[in-house]
Write a structure and sequence with these properties.
It contains eight helices and 22 strands. The two termini are 33 Å apart.
Length: 356
Amino acid sequence: MATITLDGLAHSYLDAPSKEDDWALKEMTHTWRDGEAYALLGASGCGKTTLLNIISGLLEPSRGRILFGDRDVTHAPTAERNIAQVFQFPVVYDTMTVRANLAFPLRNRGADAAYIAERVQTVARMIGMEDVLDRKARGLTADAKQKISLGRGMVREDVNALLFDEPLTVIDPHMKWELRTQLKSLHHEFGHTMIYVTHDQTEALTFADRVVVMYDGRVVQVGTPQELFERPEHTFVGYFIGSPGMNLFDAELSGDRAAIAGHEVALGARYPLSGSAQLGIRPEYLHLGGEGLPFTVTRVEDVGRHRIVRGELAGTKVNVLAGEGVEIGAEPRLRFDTAGINIYRNDWRVAPEGAA
């Protein structure tokens, strides 16, 4: 296991990148702690898989270094990095049995036969394949083959890191939940450093200790699920995390107040800027009632435990979460809970005065 350090790392697929958009990964410096479970989260094309392939050694970065602990592995091949990687689509040996597939990484390293048998049995139980250990992989379903890939990645206990590149794409929804639970259990039991690439916020938030949110080739925030929800450091994090995502309003700031479409909103704190900015607030922190800003309801969606009220405030689309007992009314007003307000300029969060 190892601490993973990205030191001034950047990558371009072009021979001579000359402008910012030429870089698939913009320069970044981050340290990912030994033994933690990370999720790389972002939309397709944001650089997640590029970064994972650099960590695994399948790709050499254009700039910067990558360290495992104190060892510089920037130019080291994958075989020397002592990692296990599970890809989006299953990679199995069709002519081998499930047992032989799971045992392959251990046999390849000359592990003791008794240990191999014990470890294969343990992993097979975790992925629910004990009853098919002696079947050939050929003919198994795609999700069964992906479970073999997951098991083969998990069978070694001595790896520096376990890397997963959207491994549950071909798995049915119920099995996705089960395998995520098993991966978390494995992490808690053995303490491997795990990095899990996904575009699915549910997968990321339920799997990881810390989520690495990527946007346009940048890491825009690394944090716990709670930190990402309560204090998105970039407007993309607010939009991408949560369902529905964060509401954004153009605002004019002055001290501890903001004007939205000519209506004053208390911010609950003073900010070290004035003039044009964006006010971000999640649907959970907007409340409907007889006081506040004028709000036009366009649709109400009942999703069981609450309703999503969709509407507009001065031409801006707004989502509000309302409890089942909340009266919406014909002409509701919109009230902002100051506990949920974040202020942004140029898409980056601005901390209030006096904040730690």
